[in-house]
Amino acid sequence: MSDALKFSKIFSNSAFAIENIQPYYFRATSTPLPEDISLITHITVASWPQLERLAENWQAPISATLHIQSKSSPLSPDIADILRDLGTKYRSNIAMSSHVDIHLYFSPPASSPSLALAHNVDRNLARLFARTEFICDVPAGIIPATRIRNTLRTNQKSFTPRLRDGDVMVVPLFTFIEHAAKHSAVPRTKASLLSLVSKGIIGLDDKHWELGNGPTNFERWRNSETLYAVKDYEVHYEPIVIQSRNAQPWCPERFADNEAACLFASYLNGADFWVLPDDFMIQLEPKRGNDLSNFESVIQNRLYAKSHGEMCVHFARQLDSLGLWDTPKAKNAIAQCSRVISSWGKGLIGKPE
């Protein structure tokens, strides 16, 4: 049975061109241990060098979606030339050929960027084909600065049950205030990182918050020596997290590129967010601008805002049907969705009359 036929049956309700997905177009020669961590990411032809840098820094499993958008068919000569060139680069880079699985997703040009740049779809594909139990969604312009796999291995007895139960481990992300730092200047220890923070060279980057602010709580992280829970979760919070490949809901694919929606689903499903005290990642590239038009950004933002109530109801009903409503698993849904739940039966979203 061809991949296209398999996907058409498995994902019969998908709105995307699943017949143009080729999993493991390039397959790594190393077989990862099941309990290892795979980085999952998505790239285009233009961002291939970022994936090479990520692989060289990680030296461990990566599952990447290569999204190619073209008016030509996947079998056309121009696309074949591009893939042949990438194949040469892939095989000549030991870190890539040893550790990186690349899944080809070919899509025709779309009338709107939100359809063309459906990165939540890319995320789900990379996760679907990851070959380890634990995954970490990392944009290709970011690199792990510390030995995160060693942290998971050392704390396996305490971390693994939490991850399998649906919790996530937050890896703090830091970005250079002026993106002039060279690769050799990347801090590799917490002490060296804090030194750069004190000099105003680098700062904690919670997207949607000013540097140094946000739910990850830099002041607490600075002084912490143990795992701690995020206390001020907010629906736009989208940190880098380690999670179970099998325990989390899938990213909602109606959003163009919204990892906050993926993590909001995890939160409503009962996940606690635990911050690693000594590990971190570094944003090497300047932040990418918004690929959407102003109009599409407004539509996407409104769609996400309107989805909060719907997602609350969905997960509340699911938890109740599983007999988990009166357990700690439902605490996040109860806290986040109390206004929605209180209006059930009245056709309202918000405070009941």
UniProtKB/TrEMBL annotation:
InterPro entries, alphabetized: Xyl/GlcA_transferase (IPR051292)
Keywords: Glycoprotein, Membrane, Signal-anchor, Transmembrane, Transmembrane helix
Ribonucleoprotein among keywords: no
Cross-referenced Pfam families: Glyco_transf_49
Gene Ontology annotations for the cellular component aspect, listed alphabetically: membrane
Single biological process term from Gene Ontology: protein O-linked glycosylation via mannose
Subcellular location: Membrane
Membrane topology: Single-pass type II membrane protein
Main localization of the protein described in the UniProt heading: membrane
GO MF annotations in UniProt: glucuronosyltransferase activity; xylosyltransferase activity
Protein name: Uncharacterized protein
Organism whose genome encodes this protein: Umbelopsis ramanniana AG
